[in-house]
Amino acid sequence: MSLITGYPAGAQVAQNDAAHMEHVTPRAGAPSSFADLTEQLQPAVVNIATKQRITVNNNPFAGTPFAEMFGNRGRPTTREAQSLGSGFIVSADGYVVTNNHVIAAEGGGEVEEITVSTTDGTEYPAELVGRDADSDLAVLKIKSDKPFKFVKFGDSAHARVGDWVIAIGNPFGLGGTVTAGIISAVYRNTGQLGAYDRYIQTDASINRGNSGGPLFDMEGNVIGINNAIYSPSGGSVGIGFAIPAEIASPIVDKLIAGEEIKRGYLGVLIGPVSEDMAEALGIPENHGEFVQSVTSDGPAEKAGLQPGDVVMKVDGKDVTPDQSLSYLVANIEPGKRVPVEINRNGKRQSITITVGERPSQEELAKQTFDPDSQNLDSQQGQSAGPGVIENALGLQAIPLNAQIARQLGASPDTKGVVVTAVDPSSDAAQKGLQRGDILLTANYQRIASVEDLEKVVKAAQAEGREAVLLRVQRRGQQAAFVPVRLNAPDKK
Question: Please, which residues have CB within 8 angstroms of residue 264's CB and are 6 or more apart in sequence?
C-alpha cells in the first residue's frame, strides 16, 4: 500500500517486511510455535477506545400532543458510553486502520474522544481521517515524535482454505490477545447481499473487541481485518469473518488520501437463485441472481431490466455466490456502460446498462423487502373451498376487487388474488406468505382469478416442476417474487 508520510523514503521498514520475517516464518507444515511471529507483529496492533455522549429521551409521550404532560421530567438527558475495539498501524507516521463500527456512536450519539493504545501501554489521542460505512472501514491518525512500528497489507487473493492464520486484537477489553487457526473458507457470502458481503472465514478465535484487528498469514502479511462472528451464544464458536485485504487496501488508500469513494449501482432488489427458485424457473441452482424488483427511474429500469429477470453476467464476469451481483457492480465506475447477460423467461439475452452511483446504506435499506413483516391489515371474507390451490400451495384465496385493494393499500385497478389463509405447515408459510398478501403473477402469468392460479399450478405439476414462482404484493412494500414448493398432488 503506497502512503505519503512525513518520513524519508526508505527510512522505515514495516514490521512484516520480508527482511524482518526471513528467520521467524515457518515455511512448511504446522509451525512449532507462533511466538516469534507474534513478537514481531504485535507492536503494530493497537487497542481503540471511544467515549461517547448518548442522548436519552425520558418522555414516553415524545412526539405526541401529550409530551408536555411530563414537563421538565420528560426532557432528554445525556449519558456517557464507551466502546472498545482493535486496529493496526499501517505507516510509520501513525495511520491506523480499524472497523467503522468500532468508532461509530450508538444511535443518536456523538463520539467525543478516540484513544489508541499501543502494546507498551502508551495512549495517543486519535483523529478520525475517514470512514466508509459500506465496507465498515475507518482510518485514524495518531502522532508521536518517534516513528511507529507498522505492518503492511498482503495479497488475500492467494489465501487458501487450510492455510494457518493468527488473529491479534483486544477481545472483551482484556488487552492484546493472540489466537491461531486456519482459513475455513475464502470469499464467504453470508447472505446479506451487500456490496461487500465477501469475507475470509476462520476458526481462529475472534470475540467481541477483536473487530478492526488484523488477520495475519504465516509470512506476517495482513490478509484480513477481523470484522464479525457468527455466534448463537455471543462468544466464539469457531466461525469468524475478516474483510479481505484485496477489498480493504484500496479503500484505505482512498480514505487516507481524502478521496471520495464512489460505487456502481443498478437500482434492483435481488435474491439468490435457491433450489426452489431454480426448480420454479427450470434453470441451474446457484447461477446468477434473481431480480425481485426494479427501482423506478434507476439505471436498470432505464436499460430495460425487469422484475423476474435472472442476471447471469455483468461486464463479462459470472454472477455466483462467491462473486455476487452487488459486489461486481459496486466495483464498476459510475457512468460506465457495461453489458449485462440475463435469463428472461428461459431465454438468454444481453442488455447494456449505464451504471449509476450507489446511494447511502440508509437509502438502500428503504428498498428492502421483509417477508416476515406482520404489520398488515387483511380482509375478512370467504375463501375458495378446498381445491387445487389449498392442496398444492397450502393457501386459501379470494379474487381481488377495488374495495379490497384499497383496504390493502394497493391501487384500485390492481389485478390478482388475495391470500386469506395459510397452512402453517406449508412451504408458503415457511417463505413468509400471510393473509392479506396479493398474488399478482404465477410463473410470470398474470392472475385475475383463483382459477387463473389453479391453471398455472396444474401446468407446473404436469411439467414435473416442484415449485411455482409467485409475485407477491404487500402493503407498503415493493412487489417481490417468492418461490413456493408444491405439495404432492392427491392420488384418488
Answer: 329, 330, 331, 332, 333, 334, 336, 355, 356, 357, 358
Residue 5 counted as domain residue:
no
φ, ψ of residue 389 to 5 degrees: the values are -65, -45
Residue ranges for the known binding site are: 101, 136, 209-211
- The neighbouring-strand residues paired with 258 are none
Helix, strand, or coil (residue 124): strand
Q: Catalytic: 211?
A: yes
CATH number for the domain harbouring residue 136: 2.40.10.10
Under 8 Å between Cβ of 218 and 31: yes
Asked if 247 and 269 sit in the same domain, the reply is no
Whether 398 and 443 share a structural domain:
yes
- Residue 134 annotated in active site: no
What is the block-wise mean pLDDT of the chain (492 residues), using blocks of 10 residues? 45 77 60 89 94 65 49 59 86 96 75 90 94 92 95 93 93 82 87 75 88 94 90 74 94 94 90 83 83 88 93 92 87 94 90 91 52 36 54 88 80 88 88 92 91 90 91 87 82 42
Active-site option among 136, 276, 309, 437: 136
Binding residues for substrate, as ranges, are 101, 136, 209-211
Of 83, 135, 205, 211, the active-site residue reads 211
| Catalytic (active site) residue 158 | no
Contact between 166 and 156 (Cβ < 8 Å):
no
Q: Give me the residue label for grid cell 413468509.
A: 432
**Would residue 167 count as lying in a domain?**
yes
Regarding pTM above 0.70, the answer is no
Task: Please name which of 221, 51, 73 lies closest in space to residue 150, comparing C-alpha atoms.
Answer: 221
Domain of 120? 18-141
Q: What is the CATH number of the domain that holds 413?
A: 2.30.42.10
